[in-house]
Amino acid sequence: MADRPPLLEVDGLAKVYRGARSGSTEAIADLSLTADRGEFVVLVGPSGCGKTTLLRCLSGLDRPSAGTIRLAGAPLDGPHPSLAVVFQEYTRSLFPWLSVRRNVELGLHRIGRGERGARVDDALGHVGLTEFADHYPWQLSGGMQQRVAIARAIAARPLFLLMDEPFASVDAQTRAQLESMVLDLWRELGWTVVLVTHDIDEAIFMGDRVLVLSRRPSRIVRSVTIELDRPRDQIETHARPEFQRYRKEILGLIGVAG
Amino acid sequence: MTARAGSLGGVGAAGRGAGIHRTWARGLVGVGMIAAALAAWEVIGRGGHVAFLAPFSTAARGAWQIVSGPALASDVLPSIARAAAGFALGGLTGIGAGLVLGYFQGVDPWLRPVLEFLRATPVPAVLPVALLAFGAGSATRVGLIALGAFWPVLLNAMDGARAVDRGYVDAARAARVGRLAILGRVIWPASLPQMFAGLRIALGVSLIMMVISEMVSSTSGLGFLVLQAQRSYAFGDMYAGVLVLGTVGGVFTLLFTLVEHRVLAWYDGQKGIRRG
Known about the structure:
The structure holds two protein chains of two kinds.
Chain A: E1 8-18, E2 24-35, E3 40-44, H1 51-58, E4 66-71, E5 74-75, E6 83-86, H2 90-93, H3 100-104, H4 113-126, H5 142-155, E7 160-164, H6 172-189, E8 192-197, H7 200-206, E9 209-213, E10 220-225, H8 234-239, H9 241-257
Parallel strand pairs in A: 3-8, 3-9, 6-7, 7-8
Antiparallel strand pairs in A: 1-2, 1-4, 4-5, 9-10
Helix pairs in contact in A: 4-5, 7-9
Chain B: H1 2-47, H2 56-68, H3 71-103, H4 108-119, H5 123-134, H6 138-162, H7 166-174, H8 179-214, H9 222-231, H10 235-263, H11 265-271
Helix pairs in contact in B: 2-10, 3-6, 3-8, 5-6, 6-8, 7-8, 8-10, 9-10
C-alpha cells in the first residue's frame, strides 16, 4: 500500500483564460497537490480565487494551460470513468425534463438495463430518496435536489469524487445534514474526495487535510492536516478546542493570502 | 396546531373553489363574447347598410355546405393536407437545422450571412418564381408553406440550442456523455420550450401561406374558393370560405396547444405556468 502512488497528483498546474477583449486572466499559477487513496481533501480560499477553475481542470472539463494532472498514475485527458462530480448549483446540473431516476442514471448509458436499475435503486437508497424516484427534481426541496445530484455520483461508482461548493445553495440546517451524510458515504464507499468550499468551518469539519488557496492567480499557501477524531459530529467536533485552533490558523492564512 | 392545519386546509379549499369558479366564468365570458360578435355580424349583415356584407346565418349555411358537400374532398381536405404537410416539413427541417447550427457554433460564421439574407426575403415573393420553376402543383405549394414555416422554427431552435445552460452540458460531459449524444439528450430537450414558440409562429405562417398559395394560379383549395366566390359576386360563399378557414385555424391551434401542453409539462411544472 505504501508504495502505491497517490490517487490524484497535480503538478505545476496553470490555467490562463484568453478573453475576447480584455486580454488574458491568469486563474491558477503553478499549483501542485496530491490526494491519497481514501483521503478527504478540502480546498478553501477567498471568493474569486480560481477554485472553480481548478475543479473544472481536475474534472477534465477544462484543459490546463500548463502542468499535469494524473489520476491513478495515468494522465487525465478528459472526463474519466472513475471520477464523478457534484456541482454547486443543482438546478443547473439536474435536468428538469427527467425524473429523479432518469437523472441519477445519466452516466450509466454504457451499462445494461438491469444493472442500471439496481445501481439507481442502491444510490437513491443511500441518500434516502427511494420513494421519490418518479418525481421531477423541481418538485423537491433544494436539499433533496442536491441529494439527487449526490445519488448520481454514487451510481457512477467512482474512485474519486469532486465536489464544488456542494452545500452553498441550501439552508444551514440542511447543510449540516448533507455534510454528515457525505462523510458517512465517504467512509462507507471508500471514495477519495476533493471538496472545494469558501466555508472554513465546513473545511475543518470534513477534511483530513485543508489546502489553503491564495487569491488569483491561485497557489496553495499551506496544507493543514486536521487531526480531529472520526466519526465527526456536528455538535461535538465543532465544540472542540482544536477546532477553534484550526479555524484561527486557516483564517490567518487566508488573511495573509489576501 | 390542529386549528392551524384546519385553517390552512380551509384556505386551500377556498382557493381551489375560486379557481374553478374563475375558469367557469372565463369560459362563459368567452362564449358570450363570440356570440355577441356573431349577433352583431348578423344584425349589421341583415341591415344591408354595409356593401357586400352577408349576414352570419348566410355565411354559416354556406360554410356547412362547403364542409358537407363535394367541396370537402375537393377543397377543404386538400388545403388542410397541404398546410399540415408544409408545417411538418418546415418544422422538422427547421428543428434539425436549428439544433445543429445552434450547437456546433463553428458553422455559424459561414452560414449566418446567407441565412440572414434568405430570411429577409418574404416567402410570398418567391411564390410566382416557384410556380414557374416547379409548376402549379400541390408539391410546389407544400414547399412554399414549408419554407414559410421553416424560418421561425430555425431561428428559435438555433437560439434555444445556443442558450442551453452550460451547467447541463457540463453535467453531461462529466458523466461522459458523448458530444453527439449531448445534442439528443441535453440540447434537444432543453430547447423544446423555445422550439415550441417557433412552431407556434410557424403554424400561423403555414395557414397564411396555404391561403396565399391557393390564390395564385390555382383550381382548388379554400383560398381558391374564397377568391372564386368574390370574383363571381357570391358574397355569401366568400364569407362562408372565410368562416371555414377561421375554424380550421382554430382547430389547428387547439391541437397544437394540446400537444405543447403534453410535451412541455415538465417546463410548465418547473416554472409554475398554468396554460389555459
